[in-house]
Design brief:
Elements (H helix, E strand, L loop, with lengths): L7 E9 L2 H11 L3 E6 L2 E5 L8 E5 L4 E8 L3 H14 L8 E2 L8 E6 L5 E6 L16 E9 L2 H11 L3 E5 L3 E5 L7 E5 L4 E8 L3 H13 L6 E5 L6 E6 L5 E6 L14 H7 L14 H7 L9 H15 L1
Parallel strand pairs: 1-4, 5-8, 9-12, 13-16
Antiparallel strand pairs: 1-5, 2-3, 3-4, 6-7, 7-8, 9-13, 10-11, 11-12, 14-15, 15-16
Bound molecules: fe (ii) ion.
Amino acid sequence: MTNSRVTGVRSIELGVRDLHQSAEFYTKVWALEQVCAEGDGIHFRATGGEHHVLTIRERPKPALLGVHFAANDRSAVDALCAKAKGYGVKIAGDPAPLDPTAGGGYGFRFCTPDGLPMSISSDIVQHPSVVLDRSRPTKISHVVLNSARIEDQVPFFIDVLGFKLSDSTHLMDFLRCSADHHSMAIFRNNGPSLNHVAYELPNIDGLMRGTGRVKQNGFNIEWGVGRHGPGSNVFSYFIEPNGFVAEYTTELDQLDDATHVPQDADYWQKMMPMPDRWGTAGPPSNRMRAAMSGALYLGEEQREDVRCEDIIGRKLG
Ligand SMILES: [Fe+2]
């Protein structure tokens, strides 16, 4: 049972309005690489070893279709499924072999107590080579979810999936499943919905080069460049064509379980009265606040959705 915990975030799966336009954004602007397509979906890799870090599928409306976690081996997957069943969350079926055209492996799908779709898998094919281009993302760094019932979500991630609490603020709880300060965070907000997905860049120069590439393609930096409080990671935030928030990040704190002490909201309020450690970022734009709440991709602000389509149509069409 020692292995029965999640060890990382493999990939994110998103429903998008226009598969072709979104694929153009994620390859030419965001600098992922298409690795394969199957059915209604396209898979994209980053420069790290993970088979794919993003899957997009054409849907009538944008949607979060999955956050996909790694576990060490089949026995860990089986044990995690048993724990999730015992906890009472919805399971899509017992662990089974996965689609070989998407890297294969062994896993199962489930929903969080909030009803958001997730999966856990092992033995997915990894890429043998790592592409060396520091302006391109290496992997998924972290995923942040909104929840109106954070007190129900955090115990699930800790007790069932094996995450540890790294830090808390008045806004968020930060959860880790590796040395990375956080691979997941839960935002005290309306929801359930996706707040943002962060992609890791190798270093600050790479983050700035990548940020410049996205900006030169017509996408405003909606928040950043700055350095966060908890996790101390450098960030720049954008709104992609479907209204999802996408972050480039680097230099996330690496924690040692033996020595790390989680800090609480009062600590961070005293420590970090500014929005970022550098004082360069200022507050997020109003569009970014709306997007982080899920309002843009959920279609609660149609005017903003039209604007996103205008941008992608003009720059990539
Ligand atoms: Fe983030």
